[in-house]
Every structure is written in structure tokens, then in C-alpha cells.
Amino acid sequence: MQINEGHNKTYPADALLHWSQWQLLDSLLPTGGFAHSFGLEAAVQCHLVSNPDELKTFIIHVLENTGSLFLPFVYSASVSPKMETWHNLDKILDATLTNEVGRKASTSQGSALMRVASAVFSEIPSLKTMRDATLGSGTVSFHHAPIFGLICGALGFDITTSQRAYMFITMRDVISAATRLNLIGPLGAALLQHQVAPIAEVTLEKWMNRGVEDACQTAPLLDTVQGCHGYLFSRLFSS
């Protein structure tokens, strides 16, 4: 069997970028997102979430909080995918987050995403250049939202798609955590994701295209519950 790897044929740059864009959203990309439950594990042990209806409510609140707090950073970074902009947004977000567990989850995912993206998306050499220049500075925390926006901008996502993609991976990761916590089965999880998608779109339209000066916390209880994660006696997730 012969395999034509296509080395002798030229493809439009936009067509190849689509493959990179889809890969960024692929759950196989090893960015560590599935190590975090967005406070769901703590909510379960605190008896705030114990059935599918409460799980759906929890996910909706997570999406609302993601839209209000993190989308402004995704938006600002995707509009100007430059190192100076990224560093400034990273510092603002680091000062904004009051939950230590959430802050560590953000920096863990962000640093993993930047490491993977700079290695995988070699057609965007600026990603590796920015990462290498930043690693030795000691002044950047590598928060996830600004890095996600930076990479989306570098990969050619339009502004709306960048923000919708961030909402999507948040919803995907929370529902995945619910599956592993045995709150819902795989088929039920797929159905729930489909049901929540229209709500996520409404939330996106509500909070999209805002500057970081408008970033705010809309679900303080979620922040408090996630902060309790470090005190759990036994836990499956990092946050």
C-alpha cells in the first residue's frame, strides 16, 4: 500500500490553518484541561451538586462566570496577539483572581497550552519566540485565558470564534469531569452538552467583545467552592 503524503502538492494556507484550528480544540491536545473540574468535585463533596439537574445548573453558572471573567482576556489577546499585550493581560488577570486554587489551575493549563502550541504549531514561529523570551523573565504567570486568545489570534481565528471556542472547551471540560465523577454517563454527557450549547451561545453574546476593564465575577459561590478543593480529604482532580 502506497501512502501519498502530499509533499508535492501546494495547498492554500487557509486550508491548512483550519486543521490547526481544529487541533487546538481537540481533547487529544495534551494541555492538562482534564485534570481540572472547575470546582465541580468540591461542589459534589459539599452536596451542592448531586443529580443531573443540579449539574446542569452548575455548568450554566460556570459558563456565565467564564463569560464575565475570562472572555475579556481571550478577546483582548486575540485582537492583538503580541507579546507585550499578552504580558500585560497576564499581569492583570493574576491580580484579578482571588482564588488560589483557580489561579494555580489557570497557570498550569496556560503554561501547558503555550508549551504544546509552540511545539506543535511550528508554522507560527512567533509562538515559540514569545515563549522562549518569556520563560526566563520570571514576571509572567502564563494564565490560560490570555494564552488561549493569543494562540487563537495567531492561528487566524476570528474574534467571535476565539471567544466561542473558549466557551466550548470550558463546557467540554466540566462535562468530562462530571462523567469521571460518575454524575452522568457518556451518552447523558453528550446529550447534556447539546442541551447546554444554546445557553452557552446566549452567554457568549452577552459577554463577548468586552475589554478587561469590564471583567467581573458573577458567581462568587463557585469561586468559594473551588477554593475549598485543596481541603478535600480525597480528590480526583487538581481543582
Helix-strand blueprint:
Elements: H1 13-24, H2 40-45, H3 52-69, H4 71-79, H5 83-96, H6 100-120, H7 125-135, H8 144-155, H9 159-180, H10 186-207, H11 220-227
Characterise the protein shown here.
- By secondary structure, the protein is mainly alpha-helical.
- The protein is built from eleven helices and no strands.
- It has helices at residues 13-24, 40-45, 52-69, 71-79, 83-96, 100-120, 125-135, 144-155, 159-180, 186-207, 220-227.
- The chain is globular.
- The mean pLDDT is 89.
Number of strands: 0
Instruction: Report the mean per-residue pLDDT as an integer.
Output: 89
Query: How is the main sheet built?
Result: none
Distance between the termini: 47 Å
Query: What is the SS-derived class?
Result: mainly alpha
Order of helices and strands: HHHHHHHHHHH
Give the % helix: 55-70%
Rough shape? globular
Low-confidence stretches: none
Bin the strand percentage: under 5%
Question: Which radius of gyration do the C-alpha atoms yield?
Answer: 18 Å
Number of helices: 11
